[in-house]
Amino acid sequence: MIIDRGNDFPQDIQNRLLTYGSDIWHFRDDINRVTTRSRNSYRGEYRGFEYITPRIRLTPRDLERTRLTRPASIHFICSPTRALQIISEIQEIEGWNPTTIFEPIPDRCIPEELPSLKAVLPHIAILSPNAEEALSLLSFPLVVTKSAVENAASEFLKMGVGKENSGSVIIRSGALGAYVMTSHRKGQWIDAFWSSTENIDKVVDVTGAGNAFLGGLAAGLSIANGNVYEASLYASVSASFTVQQFGLPHLTVGSNGVEEWNQDSPHRRLEVLRQRQDREIENKNH
User: Fold this and answer.
1) Other CB atoms within 10 Å distance of the CB of residue 37
2) In angstroms, rounded to a whole number, what is the distance separating the alpha carbons of residues 239 and 236?
3) Which residues belong to any copy of the Carbohydrate kinase PfkB domain (predicted)?
């Protein structure tokens, strides 16, 4: 991840980031500007986001000539028009064909943006709005139910996601879980880890859950050889750690060298979630 440090970058944030190791960060310094800051606000079901200092726009070219160059997957959150520009930049870099994960930016998830979205869909591998954003784009009633989400995913796939409709749609739906669908396999719900059966009170702050989900998805795609359904289990587990507190989860490494996040094992959570999914599929088939 690229971190742009301004002249006011907090030392305590720097120290906290480095507790996760230095390999995942690429720091860039600019003493002539302040650090980009933003504000998330929540009022009931309403979520607001705004920059409170000037932002820096990142592009795929920023990854070149860093140790982060040419990752296997790239996740971008932006307008459909900006997504086309990012795809074009990726295509200009010879030999780089990442899995592209597009998350439409919330304030552009309106019906007027649907034509622009249709233009970008054939060029991405995965489309992943959240449920409210998906329904808004399609002019569906903004009542999130499983059937509404399933219909939305089907509509997006009809528009043609990926080259020759080979892509996937993943609609993130909060406590309902995430609905995963491709043109060659029927849709499947992936549970949120913290559900009614697994301590819903563990959810403290959902800020960053979408990013954590899609970052976990990218890692899962690598581990699961591109299986988007299996990768979504990793995504759900990743998000489960992010929502347990304000800020980043706590990382510790035991004497045996095994990492724990929030005093729990990601592998344990993955197995719990996988077993839960298997039981639900088995019950549905009987």
Assistant:
1) 12
2) 5
3) 111-247
